[in-house]
Amino acid sequence: MALLEVAGLHVKYGNIEVLHGVDLRVNEGEIVTILGANGAGKSTTLLTLSGLVKPSGGSIAFGGRPIDKLPAHVIVKLGIAQVPEGRRIFNTLTVQENMNLGAFVSKDYEQVKKTQDWIYALLPVLSERRQQLGGTLSGGEQQMLAIGRALMSRPKILLLDEPSLGLAPLLVKTIFQTLREINTTGVTIVLVEQNARAALKLAHRAYVMELGNIVLEGPSPELMANSEVQAAYLGTGSQ
Hints:
Blueprint: E1 4-13, E2 16-26, E3 31-35, H1 42-49, E4 57-62, E5 65-66, H2 72-78, E6 80-83, H3 95-102, H4 109-122, H5 124-128, H6 139-151, E7 157-161, H7 169-184, E8 188-192, H8 196-202, E9 205-210, E10 213-219, H9 220-224, H10 227-234
Parallel strand pairs: 3-8, 3-9, 6-7, 7-8
Antiparallel strand pairs: 1-2, 1-4, 4-5, 9-10
Helix pairs in contact: 3-6
């Protein structure tokens, strides 16, 4: 059984439908990426998975349990955390205070401390900047903080929306290496990413979205070799 199963997902903003029956499957331990142009429905899909947008039809099951009608804070407690596009850290709070906010679902302070120590070991730059205000960090450091904050809830699935946005190529490489390390600890990852080449190299499987529909899916190497994907997203192949 898939850890996350999405079937026939429809989402509307007002009278405009933006997802038209999306089917997705994410197995435990996988990294799955969702590719597509701006406006394809990728971010809406993540927001719906985390309960911030409510579907107008279809179903979402997490560990076999329906979650499509649950509020976002309950979904976080069940084990789904999101790193939003644009990072959305609290600029006027310190790194430590931002991290503390990520643990709001837990009352087990010993477990929270263990989780924090694990994250600081994984992302040493955050440990070095604990007392620094979030707004004074570089873009890459802010992205690391957004990831660290999400990990504080000990998610089973980490949803990431455009983690490489606005970052220099060297920092992008670091972020993706970090995601691989997080995955090796047992955290399943769903990644929405404009940098298709980096995403496909990282992910086990991929979906391609166009205008609110899934148009392609398969193992990442297969999609990397697909001439349509190459032409549309990788800048290679026939135009």
